[in-house]
Write a structure and sequence with these properties.
By secondary structure, this protein is of the alpha/beta class. It contains 20 helices and 13 strands. Helix content is 47%, strand content 11%.
Length: 630
């Protein structure tokens, strides 16, 4: 007992230390350790809708010392925190930066009018919040109004370049990161300096160019922009050279520049790839003439640019670990109380195949292969599931719905696996509802109070993690992202969405838990070693195959700069969903830990099931775009 108390005391101290360190690392890096003011702002559009934003302002900037400002828009289904890497690097170098969630995404409202969504008069593209942000920037007395820059990642690049096209002469510099859409082909006025950045391994560009990103820079529309030539045959225009600055005369008679860069990065990881971050820093500082790193005189020197963002990402990792540790400690403490200790039932007999027997191996491999084998089918069932149109049921937009349709597809297969196991082996060896974890009483009877107690256990466990996360988020003024894994506190208007997606995920967590019974994953000996062994095996079965698929895809992408020919990676935008396996693996591994811990400690599925459902719903609902609230 004494050693257990020592263990919990140590873990509680570790939790406090990680929580504090996460805030120090995030806030310190964001503020340049006191040189930058970071302020969360809620702007209001002309239609009265909220636009969530974050302002980075060098403390030295004021009406007598004006500074350039960069407006940065995140990519599709992301959140403003994803632009934080560039925001802090530029702020360290003397720039003001404002990032925002575009309309309907993350914590910005779904637009109720067309002030931000109406097609631009010239570009035909919506501004998606930039109009409100731009009007706000125009009111800042510390901003050099002649040096307003705009930048967008992926879809954000499409929106920001559209805004620049629709506001000739008002944007000094436009940076497109991972997007080669410049509005209508008829657009012939680009009165702004323009930088176009596409990574050599950009999966989106590779899919659109038959595995040749360099060829994207030679497309007619881009060459005409670079040379400001809309009359001569496109074939007569010279090829665009990378890292070369071209000068053109705009419609207003002023001189503007055009530059293209191709850093070593893929599309999803521009935010965490050193070469891409350095390229963005160089592109902006060299163009504006402020904040160039010592010794960097040309793009050939950009590898020597010193960066700071890594420390913030360490803070994000600590933020996630603190959240998970808080849930683990809370669930452990709850099970030691008299009230929740009643959840612990005596171990039931194991009806699964004998460990390492032939059938055990067959079912283990089958359970590991199914998530991968059904991934494409499940993803593409997002709009039509079993022949039924389900597109109208989604409250979210984008990738997150694809996760759910994949879960539903996999649920059918997992149910089939369980039924085959049960009727061919499990039933003959004592398999029944009680043995499979549905027990609520020692004698096998039903106790509705047990299920309510289990749900309360899950709510308190989840609330502990959410509370720690919220504390860190409150003081850092932001959510968290690790590469493409994002998490944020849930805005009140998403409460109903949370409930709906909680219900949507029940089939997956329930059937996967049952299917795992065939190989006895949750049948540990109750020891700490036995628990972690169950977690390891369970995670490997549930996510190991998908992680391997992601790893092969990324290694080939980053080293060979291709989407593997002859595979489904290049069709139906599957490259987006394969790169998105990483956040899925991170989130579901945590859900698996929470589920298995409660299941092995209580010898029942209920407490773990509810905890995993709450975590999974938070992971899916907290960030990204939303289609409707009800």
């Amino acid at each position: 007992m004494k050693s257990k108390h020592h263990k919990y005391s140590f873990l509680c101290a570790l939790l406090a230390l990680m929580t504090i360190l996460s805030m120090v690392m995030i806030i310190g890096t964001d503020t340049g350790w006191g040189k930058v003011e970071v302020t969360h702002q809620v702007l209001t559009s002309a239609d009265g809708d909220e636009i969530n934003s974050m302002l980075y302002k060098p403390k030295a900037a004021d009406k007598d010392h004006k500074v350039p400002i960069v407006m940065i828009c995140h990519g599709g289904n992301d959140m403003l925190e994803q632009a934080g890497t560039y925001a802090l690097e530029l702020a360290w170098r003397g720039y003001a930066v404002i990032t925002w969630d575009y309309t309907g995404c993350h914590n910005s409202d779904i637009p109720t009018g067309d002030s931000e969504t109406a097609p631009g008069a010239i570009s035909g593209l919506p501004s998606m919040g930039e109009k409100t942000v731009f009007n706000t920037v125009k009111s800042y007395d510390f901003v050099d109004q002649d040096k307003i820059c705009a930048m967008g990642h992926s879809m954000g690049g499409m929106y920001t370049v559209g805004f620049a096209v629709d506001h000739p002469g008002e944007i000094y510099l436009q940076v497109n990161l991972g997007m080669n859409n410049y509005g209508s082909d008829q657009n012939q006025v680009h009165d702004f300096n323009f930088v176009n950045i596409l990574g050599v391994a950009d999966e989106s560009a590779l899919a659109r160019s038959d595995n040749n990103v360099a060829s994207v820079f030679q497309k007619e529309q881009y060459k005409r922009i670079v040379y400001n030539n809309y009359t001569d045959p496109a074939d007569s225009l010279p090829d665009v050279e990378l890292a070369k600055t071209y000068e053109v005369t705009g419609s207003d008679g002023k001189t503007y520049t055009r530059t293209a860069y191709m850093p070593a990065s893929c599309h999803a990881y521009y935010l965490v790839t050193d070469d891409a971050v350095r390229t963005v820093i160089y592109a902006i500082t060299s163009q504006v003439g402020l904040g160039m790193d010592p010794g960097v005189t040309s793009y050939a020197d950009h590898g020597f640019i010193h960066m700071h963002w890594h420390a913030k990402d360490i803070g994000f990792v600590l933020m996630l670990l603190s959240t998970v540790l808080a849930m683990y400690l809370t669930s452990s403490a709850l099970l030691e109380t008299e009230y929740f200790g009643k959840l612990k039932l005596k171990p039931a007999a194991c009806a699964g195949y004998p460990k390492k027997s032939k059938l055990w191996w067959i079912f283990t491999v089958l359970l590991a292969v199914l998530p991968v084998g059904l991934y494409r089918t499940g993803i593409l069932s997002m709009n039509k599931f079993l022949g039924m149109d389900i597109s109208k049921i989604w409250l979210l937009a984008g990738t997150n719905n694809a996760y759910i349709s994949w879960q539903w597809t996999l649920s059918l297969a997992m149910l089939a696996v369980f039924l085959i196991f049960h009727y061919s082996y499990g039933k003959k060896h004592g398999g029944c509802a009680a043995v499979y974890g549905f027990r609520t009483r020692e004698d096998g009877g039903f106790d509705g109070g047990y299920i309510l107690r289990s749900f309360l256990f899950a709510v308190i466990t989840f609330a502990a993690g959410y509370g720690v996360f919220s504390l860190i988020s409150r003081y850092t003024q932001q959510g968290m992202h690790i590469a493409t894994f994002m998490l944020s506190t849930v805005k009140a208007n998403r409460s109903w969405v949370f409930i709906v997606y909680f219900l949507f995920q029940i089939p997956y967590f329930l059937t996967s838990t049952l299917a795992m019974k065939s190989v006895g994953v949750t049948d540990s000996d109750g020891s700490e070693k036995g628990f972690w062994k169950s977690v390891g095996i369970g995670s490997l079965i549930a996510m190991g195959g998908l992680f391997l698929l992601w790893l092969i895809f990324v290694l080939v992408l980053l080293n060979k700069h291709i989407l593997i020919p002859g595979t489904y990676f290049m069709t139906e935008r599957m490259y987006i969903y394969v790169i998105a396996i990483l956040p899925l693996c991170i989130g579901m591994t945590i859900a698996n830990i929470l589920n298995l811990y409660a299941a092995t400690k209580t010898n029942s599925i209920w407490a773990g099931l509810f905890t995993a459902l709450l975590w999974g719903s938070w992971m899916i609902v907290s960030c990204g775009a939303i289609a409707r609230y009800f």
